[in-house]
Fold this protein.
Amino acid sequence: MKALHSAERLERAAACSRESRASTRLHSAGICLLLLAVGLAGPSAARATEVQITFQNLAPTSPTGLYNSPVWFGFHDGSFDLFDSGTSAGAAIEALAELGDSSLLHSSFTTWQPLGADFVLKNAGGPGPGLFTPGSTRSFVLDLDPGLQRYLSFGAMVVPSNDSFIANANPLAMALFDGMGNFLGSQSWTFTGASVWDAGTEVNSPSNGAAFIAGVDATLGEDEKGTIHLQPLNGLDADLGQTTPAGTVIGRALTTDPLFRIQVTPVPEPGTYGLLGALALGALMLARSRGRNATDQRNSALIQSRNSLRS
């Protein structure tokens, strides 16, 4: 009888031990999840940060507004200057503004920013090389180094036009991280028709060298030999009524209404941190509950063991 009692006590002890180990593992997992959530939501200094970049063409679809070429994005340390207002456009800006071609811009960027990162965002399914149609939106995701890729620069051609483009002239204007390497969080920049530049490289004429007008050869055009300047709001009015290769008729040009928007958001977004935290707290609560159950079972086993010995 004593041997039987001893075997039962051993089995109960083993079961309690297994329950205790399982509870400990669950408790540890909960702590790990909680630390992960806190770590992700906390400052992002000195580590790569995954972000999502979104570009929106905000031009109206009725009447049809302006299109834009695929957008070039460059991420750098603040020393890469795309252009300066009042100066002659270099070959890279000329190619971007007249043909929407960012290949020279990419070459220049990689030469001056070998540790930077750049990307060309196209509108899949858009006309031609992936033009952004009025109302279209596209995004991409990439990892950024907080020090080497702290700032954002961008550029795209506005069409139809001869040499109009959008870009940020100030390389420090669009900071994604602070000086300590902390991610600055979600940000949004909106540009109106008053933000459009004229490269000063080609005379504005819808019938001579303008891009994205049906029947017009965009590789032609008359040299202007001017300087980069902001395009007047009436600077593209000559394109009104022009038919595009997509079959649309331009009915709205430059206005003070929002025309383009760039948004930066963290990946995962803050809601994911909350989900991780909730999972972690749930795991901790379950671990504590199991721990209490294991303690109750051990106490019950001890009481039964003592009663067995007394009998």
About this structure: DSSP finds four helices and eleven strands in the chain. The two ends are 10 Å apart (CA to CA).
